Structure to design on (274 residues):
């Protein structure tokens, strides 16, 4: 059995030259959480399996992502690093990989130009091609009339999941489940799946979203959005069928150390690297 991965997420912007880590609620209400290089180093030393950097304003501001931050990070961090935000062309993948990243995640550019997935996976390999999906529930009272969407029955009714772009600022009407399937077919090696409804709320992952996409693709799915306790991470694996769990607030604000979370999971028979 493959070990489940625990992945701290550093949502960053470049409001200061060295970058800063921020955290919001449902992609809003942003507050400062620390220095990206310092936090990444701490999480590596604490046992993080991977670290994700998401430049949350790069796509919206139509600018390049933070190469210098990654170069400084890899001087002391030797866990796999994934970078997202502002990855628009194959050359952006190459640039970030040369800076020291192991993977690149793209959302907006892939939706606007799906052939980017084919090109990137062919050029740098599927293992370096992660697709970010930021999805929001859309409820419907007539599921049979929504043939173009993958309808899921939840405890609050029937819904489908709408993909957003530009850091949650714009919705596309693209069904997240169908899009995930297409991404795999085009060569993506992993899905970074964020529930916009749960982001920053600390009430737990959207398990219906996570499970549905995990069951419909064969590539790894990283659950994201809503962690408040180690139990939520356990549920992402035991109920959501995720391959990895991404979290931010519980690590940034010293609520639960990575070591504690891994021990909690191990005691509940979840295979993790200690």
């Amino acid at each position: 059995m493959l070990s489940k991965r625990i992945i701290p997420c550093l949502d960053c912007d470049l409001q200061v030259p060295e970058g800063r880590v921020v955290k919001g609620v449902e992609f809003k209400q942003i507050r400062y959480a620390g220095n990206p290089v310092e936090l990444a180093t701490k999480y590596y030393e604490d046992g993080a399996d991977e670290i994700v950097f998401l430049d949350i304003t790069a796509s919206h501001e139509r600018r390049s992502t933070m190469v210098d931050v990654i170069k400084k990070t890899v001087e002391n961090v030797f866990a796999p690093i994934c970078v997202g935000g502002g990855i628009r062309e194959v050359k952006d993948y190459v640039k970030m990989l040369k800076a020291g990243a192991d993977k690149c995640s793209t959302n907006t550019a892939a939706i606007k130009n799906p052939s980017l997935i084919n090109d990137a996976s062919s050029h740098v390999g599927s293992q370096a091609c992660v697709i970010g999906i930021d999805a929001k529930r859309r409820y419907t009272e007539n599921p049979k009339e929504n043939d173009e969407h993958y309808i899921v029955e939840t405890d609050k009714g029937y819904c489908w999941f709408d993909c957003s772009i530009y850091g949650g600022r714009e919705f596309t009407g693209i069904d997240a489940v169908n899009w995930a399937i297409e991404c795999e077919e085009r060569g993506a090696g992993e899905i970074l799946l964020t529930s916009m409804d749960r982001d920053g709320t600390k009430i737990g992952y959207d398990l219906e979203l996570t499970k549905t996409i995990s069951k419909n693709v064969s590539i790894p799915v990283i659950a994201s959005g809503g962690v408040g306790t180690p139990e939520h991470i356990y549920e992402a694996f035991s109920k959501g069928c995720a391959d990895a769990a991404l979290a931010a607030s519980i690590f940034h604000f010293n609520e639960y150390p990575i070591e504690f979370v891994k021990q909690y999971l191990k005691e509940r028979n979840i295979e993790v690297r200690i």
About this structure: The two ends are 15 Å apart (CA to CA). The CA atoms of residues 212 and 269 lie 23 Å apart. Residues 36-46 form the longest helix (11 residues). The chain has ten helices and 13 strands.
